[in-house]
Every structure is written in structure tokens, then in C-alpha cells.
TrEMBL record, chain A:
Lineage: Bacteria, Bacillati, Actinomycetota, Actinomycetes, Pseudonocardiales
Name of the protein described by the UniProt record: Carbon-monoxide dehydrogenase medium subunit
Gene Ontology MF terms: FAD binding; oxidoreductase activity
InterPro entries the UniProt entry points to: CO_DH_flav_C, CO_DH_flav_C_dom_sf, Diverse_Substr_Oxidored, FAD-bd_PCMH, FAD-bd_PCMH-like_sf, FAD-bd_PCMH_sub1, FAD-bd_PCMH_sub2, Mopterin_DH_FAD-bd
Source organism superkingdom: Bacteria
Keywords for this protein: FAD, Flavoprotein, Oxidoreductase
Pfam families: CO_deh_flav_C, FAD_binding_5
Keyword Flavoprotein appears in the UniProt entry: yes
FAD-binding PCMH-type domain segment(s): 1-174
Transmembrane domains' residue ranges: none
N-terminal signal peptide: none
Automatic annotation (TrEMBL), chain B:
Domain 2Fe-2S ferredoxin-type: 24-100
SUPFAM superfamilies in alphabetical order: 2Fe-2S ferredoxin-like, Bet v1-like, CO dehydrogenase ISP C-domain like
GO molecular function (one): 2 iron, 2 sulfur cluster binding
Protein name: Carbon-monoxide dehydrogenase small subunit
Domain of life, source organism: Bacteria
Organism: Pseudonocardia alni (Amycolata alni)
PANTHER family, per the entry: OXIDOREDUCTASE WITH IRON-SULFUR SUBUNIT, XANTHINE DEHYDROGENASE IRON-SULFUR-BINDING SUBUNIT XDHC-RELATED
Keyword line: 2Fe-2S, Iron, Iron-sulfur, Metal-binding, Oxidoreductase
Pathway: Alkaloid degradation; nicotine degradation
Length: 288, 413
């Protein structure tokens, strides 16, 4: 369980990070909580690890014009403890499920997105909340919706010479409510199935927008606009979410749960978290 | 809403490149003593603490982040010492279990562990102590009911959990404003057991022997790691599809990332396949042997095996069959018993089915193309076999054209 030899560099400027990655034999090292196990098992042998934690522009997190922006070197636990992150309730709801405390103290939010594990919480939250990912690469800077960024299991739109610079989660708007739940074998494990929900209601309390993202159930987080589902079946969501589960849960299954079991989990969680998000949205509307 | 200053989290100092075979001096404070260790980039903090500084209280179990044995405090927060390279720790303040207390002056947590019989073999105890110290010093307001969850990041192998939780709860109650600081941190001489050069320092870069070239494919006995059944509807007629299956060179080129390197006698073929997925990169050298070729039934069966230089191996018993389908097309079915051994199996055993399934799905598309044009578009770098190998976990994800695909993943322990 020892990593094969690699070169190590910790540039102080983003341009130098990009310079080190040019050529494609380097790997970004952020928190290392996913990368180091890969190295230890020698499933990956990058030539150089490019540590991004000394780049000042990557180490800040805080509220900005279009939402809560998290730089690539900001650790999950720092976000967890940042009061201004509460403007994005989903972050606080999901964070306790991202591995364990001891991992969140080093792991980064952007690293989790870049790693794109199909069962990870943060990419799913980013998709449901319609977060924006900022990238820098040989072709310059670009921004894209989280949903476009994650392209498959452990595969993203970022090329080997690109760096994720930051992710911005939109602040919760009036009339919005959220839901998050996952089932794992043990606290801190990756989810067997999980859902993230976001519901918005109008002044009359009627649903105007509903989104649902499932994770651990396919090769990536799967997001659906479920506005019609919620408006038409508000009183009895289970049959509708069961049908949705048939559609979106397509993992092959493993010893911890068959496809059928995961569909059932997903259907139940989806109904419950949609209904919770709806009630929270209405509560917030009434109080505002 | 741009009123709040963005919160900054500890920017590290830049460092110039350290070559893979070089060592570098890293200054850090360990249990209150400033020290400099000389390490190669790949030395993790756990090894450096134990072997260079003689602090063997930090235990190592899994060395990939799962067990929590190696938990220490880095700048006041618990972290896995096995997931942190010492080169990342320049200027860091580290506290290990040795810094928590001494036999004569135990920390309240240590006293409580003793009072509640919170250990049997004691292997997990340092990790448990450091994790609970982190919890009670950073979040003293934690509730009793939350303790099982909060203490789940460290595993105990000999059922010490009840005692452990009772001990932590005891200290939580007796110190509602947070636990006292470590008692054994202060200037002292840290003596290493090693030669001072550090583990692996100056060691020659490991030469990985080329995977031994097998002459014949041997399938392991015992149940396969995964069984894959894939059915794909192709547009081309069955005879043309069979022409592709019957031409092993063309067939091999239909596998993304694969390449035939040598044709041997007895319907045997040598080749290489590259799997790239996120940080995981494997290169398999392998051998395939056709064991059955039935032109009338359009059926081909072969055994294949591949080995990666890193010690991962895969074997498969594959049956491909083409049948005339609707609209003049072909129904191509693939059945494979896949055996995985070595690191790849340990890493993503449960994903074997999804990996293989995607492989066959991409393969079927290429066969269709080859049946139509007689050749396969050279896959670009990005089109290398990008398949699921997963992380250290057991969950899987996969996109399937439902109804066409069925995968069973078996698991051997
Ligand atoms: C035992 C264990 C349990 C875990 N459980 C969970 C869990 O339940 N849920 C969960 O979501 N995660 C879990 N994780 C994973 C984890 O903790 C990390 O949150 C995360 O996946 C990686 O973040 P990181 O900053 O450590 O990234 P790293 O490990 O440093 O990097 C991961 C990958 O992303 C790339 N990368 C990182 N940052 C960037 C960037 N800015 N630009 C471009 N590429 C980048 C790296 O090159 C690498 O390929 C677990 C990990 C362990 C060891
Ligand atoms: S040895 Fe570090 S977590 Fe197991
Ligand atoms: S006391 Fe033996 S592992 Fe916990």
C-alpha cells in the first residue's frame, strides 16, 4: 500500500499550476482523500502531483453576487463551519454524509466534483442546486452548469490539463424548500441510493418548480424536472416516484443491493424528500 | 450580497518541484517539538511519524483511508496520516497520541477509556482517542445520540464500541466547554528508529517487471467476479457481422483502447488494452485464445487474460453470438464470465460487472461500424476505454439501455 514514486510541486500561482499540468502527466492534488488511495493501490501512477493549496485565489469561500462561491482548495470542513454557507441549505444538509469528519478536514468540495464518484453527495447537490463550475485550462477560462460538468462515472468535462477553479451554488430563493436523504450501510459510507430535492412555490402555495437528483443509482447523478409529477400527484407521490425509479435507477447492482432494491429505496426517498421540500417551501413562504 | 469577506482557509507556502527520486527537508511541529524530516514525495505522514520520529503510537491499518487507525491532529483537526504526504505538511502542527498524555499524566480521555474498558487489543485506541479529541475540542456541544455517528470514522475490530462511546460520552459531560488540551506537548528530542534518511529515501525507482507473457490462457476455478450478458441490436446483416467476428484482428480493433500486437499459432493472439478512468490508469498485456468457432451458428468463443504491471489481472471466458434480427439487422449477444484478481479486484470488485458491460456496449457499436465499413475509426485519446473502476467503496453506477442488458456481480471474499 505505498504509492509509486512521483514528483511533487506546489505552485503559488494558477498559471504555474496550468504549466505543470501541460503535457498531461500531472494530476491535481487537492485534499488527496480520493487520489491518495488510488496511488496507494497503484491503480494510478501520475508522473507529478500538482498541489493546488498554495494558490491564494483558490483558498477563499464566501457569498458573492450569484451565490456562495467555493474555491478549489477550500476544505469541506471549512465550508461546513462557515455560517455564510447556510444561504445554501443543501450544502449543510449533505455535508455530514460526505465520508467522515477526519476526511472532510482535508477533502475539498471541488475535489469531490472533479472526482465525480457516481455515489458522491456533492456532485448531486451541485446538479440539483444548478451550481456553476469554473474551469481554467490551456484554452482559457470557462464556466458550465454542474450537470454538464459531470459526464459519467469518475469522468468530467475537465481535461487532463484543466483545473477546476471554483464552484458557485445559487443562494436559496424565497419560496424554496429542500430535501436530502441517503441510505448507506454505515454512516460515512457511500450511498446505496440517495436523493436531493428542490421545490419552489408561488404566492398561492402552488408548486412552480420542482427538481430531483438521484445519486448512487446510475453512473452519475441523474437530475429530473419533476414539476408535473409533484403538481399532479401531491397527495400520493409513491406510485409516481416508483415509476420514476424504474426510469432512472439503472445501476447493475452489487452484493449490497440489487437494482430492484435500489429502485425501492429511491422511490421511497424521492416521495419523502419531495414532500418534505414542498412543506418547507410553504413554511418559508408563510413566514416570509 | 458581496458584503461578507470570503473566508480563507490556510494557504500553504509554494514549493518548487521535488523529483520523484529526490528527498526534501520538511519542517513541522510534532507534539510541540519543532522538527525537520527528510522525505521523498511519496512518504506519507503515518510512516514518517513511526519510522523517522519513533512515534509508533500512530497505528497503520489499511493505508487507504478506510480504517482510521492512523488518525492524528493536523493543525487542530483530525486527519488520516496515511492520506497525507509529509511534503504537504510543511509548517503544520501535528499532535499524535503520544502528545495527548503520558502514563503519569493521562489526558481525561485516556483515563475515561481506561475506566470504561474501552479497549481490548488496543490497536484502534490511538485513532479513537485522536478522533474523539477532535470531536470534543471542536464541537463540545455534540449530543450524546450523535456519538455513534461521529465516532464511525475509526473502526474497532474487537467490539470495543460500547466502552468507547461510554468513555467519550463521559468526557463530553464532564467537559461541556471542551476538553483540555494535549498534556504531553513540549520541547523534547524526537528520536527516529530509522537511519534518518526516511522510508524509501534514495531507494531506486522501482522497476516494474513487464507482465510475464503467458503462453496459454488459464481460467481460474471458482465462481467469476462478474457475469456479463449483453444483447445489442445492430443495423448490419448477420453475415457481415459474422465476418467481423471471424476476423480476430478486426474484432480486437473494435474494443476501445485495445490493440493486437502479435498473432500466434493455434488461433492465439497477443494484445494490449488500456483502461483510463479519472486518476486510475491500467495497461493490460494479454493473450486471447479462440476455443470455438462455429460459422453456421455465427458463434465465437474465446478465453482471454490480461495482466497489469501493477499486479492486477483479469481473465474472461467470452461467447459472442450473432443472430439475424428484425429489419435485416443482427442481434449480437455477448456472455462473459469475468475473473478479477490483484489490486483491481480489491479496489473495485463490485464494479466489475459495470466495467465489463460498458466495454461490450462500446464494442458492439464498433462491430456494427466494422460490419458496414470493413474498418474501425481509430479511437482518439479521449475515446480510450473509459470505464468504471470506482473508488474505495462498493457502490456502482452504470448507464444501461434497459431491457437489453443484465449484469450479475458476484463477490468472493
Ligand atoms: C474512506 C473514505 C470514505 C469516503 N466516503 C465518501 C462519501 O461518503 N461521499 C463522498 O462524496 N466522498 C467520500 N470520500 C471521498 C472524499 O472524501 C473526497 O471528498 C473527494 O472525493 C475528493 O476530494 P479531495 O479534495 O480529497 O480530492 P483529491 O483526492 O485531491 O482529488 C480527487 C480527484 O480529483 C482531481 N481533482 C481534485 N481537485 C481538482 C481540481 N481543482 N481541478 C481538477 N481536478 C481536481 C484529482 O486530480 C483526482 O483525480 C471518501 C473517501 C474515503 C477515503
Ligand atoms: S491506516 Fe490510515 S485510515 Fe487505515
Ligand atoms: S480494541 Fe482492538 S481494534 Fe479496537
Amino acid at each position: 500500500m505505498k504509492a509509486a514514486p512521483f514528483a511533487y510541486v506546489r505552485p503559488g500561482r494558477l498559471d504555474d499550476v496550468l504549466g505543470e499540468l501541460a503535457g498531461g502527466d500531472g494530476k491535481v492534488l487537492a485534499g488527496g482523500q480520493s487520489l491518495v488511495p488510488v496511488l496507494a493501490m497503484r491503480l494510478g501512477r501520475p508522473g507529478t502531483l500538482v498541489d493546488i493549496t498554495a494558490v491564494p485565489e483558490l483558498t477563499a469561500a464566501g457569498p458573492e453576487q450569484d451565490g456562495y462561491r467555493i474555491g478549489a482548495a477550500v476544505r469541506q470542513r471549512a465550508v461546513e463551519h462557515d455560517r455564510s454557507a447556510r444561504a445554501v441549505p443543501l450544502i449543510g444538509m449533505a455535508m455530514p454524509f460526505v465520508g467522515h469528519r477526519e476526511l472532510r478536514s482535508r477533502g475539498t468540495v471541488c475535489g469531490s466534483l472533479a472526482h465525480a464518484d457516481p455515489a458522491a453527495e456533492l456532485p448531486a447537490v451541485a446538479c440539483c442546486a444548478q451550481a456553476t463550475v469554473e474551469l481554467a485550462g490551456p484554452a482559457g477560462r470557462r464556466r458550465m452548469p454542474a450537470e454538464e460538468f459531470v459526464t459519467g462515472a469518475m469522468t468530467t468535462a475537465a481535461g487532463p490539463e484543466d483545473v477546476v477553479v471554483a464552484v458557485t451554488f445559487p443562494h436559496a430563493r424565497p419560496g424554496e424548500g429542500f430535501g436530502f436523504a441517503e441510505i448507506a450501510r454505515r454512516h460515512g459510507d457511500f450511498a446505496l441510493a440517495g436523493v436531493v430535492t428542490r421545490v419552489r412555490v408561488g404566492d398561492d402555495g402552488a408548486v412552480t418548480e420542482a427538481r430531483l437528483t438521484g445519486f448512487g443509482i446510475s453512473d452519475r447523478a441523474v437530475t429530473r424536472d419533476v414539476t408535473p409529477l409533484l403538481t399532479e400527484h401531491e397527495d400520493d407521490l409513491r406510485p409516481a416516484t416508483a415509476a420514476l425509479a424504474d426510469e432512472v435507477v439503472d445501476t447493475g447492482g452489487d452484493t449490497h443491493g440489487s437494482t430492484g432494491y435500489r429502485r425501492r429505496l429511491f422511490g421511497v426517498l424521492a416521495a419523502r424528500e419531495l414532500s418534505r421540500a414542498l412543506h418547507r417551501a410553504r413554511d418559508r413562504k408563510e413566514r416570509s | 450580497m458581496t458584503t461578507v469577506e470570503p473566508r480563507r482557509t490556510g494557504t500553504a507556502e509554494p514549493r518548487d518541484r521535488v523529483a520523484a527520486d529526490e528527498t526534501v527537508g520538511i519542517r513541522m511541529t510534532v507534539n510541540g517539538t519543532e522538527t525537520t524530516v527528510t522525505v521523498p514525495p511519496r512518504a506519507h505522514l503515518g510512516d514518517v511519524l513511526r519510522e523517522q520520529l519513533g512515534l509508533t503510537g500512530t497505528h497503520l491499518g489499511c493505508e487507504h483511508g478506510v480504517c482510521g487507525m492512523c488518525t492524528v491532529l493536523v493543525d487542530g483537526e483530525a486527519a488520516r496520516a496515511c492520506l497525507l504526504f509529509a511534503v504537504q505538511c510543511e509548517g503544520a502542527e501535528i499532535v499524535t497520541v503520544e502528545g495527548l498524555g503520558t502514563p503519569e499524566d493521562q489526558h481525561p480521555l485516556q483515563q475515561a477509556f481506561s475506566a470504561h474498558h474501552a479497549l481490548q487489543c488496543g490497536f484502534c485506541t490511538p485513532g479513537m482517542l485522536m478522533s474523539s479529541y477532535d470531536l470534543l475540542s471542536n464541537t463540545p456541544e455534540v449530543e450524546s445520540e450523535e456519538l455513534p455517528e461521529q465516532m464511525s470514522g475509526v473502526l474497532c475490530r474487537c467490539t470495543g464500541y460500547r466502552g468507547i462511546l461510554a468513555a467519550v460520552d463521559d468526557v463530553r459531560q464532564s467537559h461541556p466547554d471542551g476538553v483540555p488540551g494535549p498534556r504531553a506537548c513540549g520541547a523534547r528530542t524526537l528520536v527516529g528508529r530509522g537511519t534518518g534518511g526516511g522510508s524509501g529515501a534514495g531507494a531506486p525507482a522501482e522497476e516494474v517487471p513487464a507482465a510475464a507473457l503467458a503462453q496459454e490462457v488459464r481460467l481460474p476455478s471458482g465462481p467469476p467476479s462478474a457475469v456479463v450478458d449483453v444483447t445489442s441490436a445492430l443495423r448490419q446483416p448477420v453475415e457481415r457481422v459474422w465476418a467481423v467476428l471471424d476476423d480476430f484482428d478486426l474484432l480486437a480493433r473494435c474494443l476501445p483502447g485495445a490493440r493486437l500486437t502479435e498473432v500466434l499459432d493455434g488461433d492465439r493472439y497477443r494484445g494490449r488494452a488500456v483502461v483510463a478512468l479519472g486518476p486510475v490508469k491500467l495497461s493490460f498485456d494479454g493473450l486471447a485464445q479462440v476455443v470455438e468457432r462455429d460459422p453456421a451458428a455465427h458463434r465465437l468463443r474465446f478465453h482471454a487474460q490480461g495482466a497489469d504491471a501493477g499486479g492486477s489481472a483479469t481473465q474472461a471466458d467470452v461467447v459472442l453470438a450473432a443472430e439475424a434480427g428484425p429489419d435485416g439487422g443482427t442481434v449480437l449477444t455477448a456472455h462473459a464470465d469475468v475473473h478479477l484478481t490483484g489490486r483491481v479486484a480489491q479496489f473495485g470488485r463490485a464494479l466489475a460487472g459495470d466495467v465489463s458491460r460498458r466495454l461490450f456496449e462500446q464494442f458492439a457499436t464498433s462491430v456494427d461500424e466494422a460490419a458496414e465499413t470493413g474498418s474501425v475509426t481509430e479511437p482518439g485519446r479521449g475515446a480510450q476505454l473509459r470505464l468504471v473502476l470506482g473508488t474505495v467503496r462498493d457502490t456502482v453506477g452504470a448507464l444501461v439501455r434497459r431491457g437489453l442488458t443484465r449484469v450479475r456481480t458476484l463477490r468472493r471474499r
